[in-house]
Give the backbone structure.
Amino acid sequence: MKFFAISDNIDTITGLRLSGIKGVVAHEREEVLAVLDELLEDNEMGIILMTELLAEKIPEELKVIRLDSTKPIITVIPDRHGERRKPDYITNYIKESIGLKI
């Protein structure tokens, strides 16, 4: 299983490369989608790490990929500036997904 990272800044990629994870820097929506298309064709790709800023640029595409169980796992991570999401984002995500209030 392979890991890969897509980041909007070189600092995050450098840190991940030090831990053995390959990755690229992308800034525009089209760049991110092009990299994702290439990664989704790799049958050995297991986990894709993506910074929050880039994930915000392709929300619908991420939703489609996540709903398809044959694709790799895409995990959104904070960048060097810290987390951009609300503190209760997991609770809200569950609430939206299954319709239950926790």
About this structure: The two ends are 34 Å apart (CA to CA). Residues 47 and 73 are 5 Å apart (CA to CA). The chain has one domain: 2-98. DSSP finds five helices and four strands in the chain.
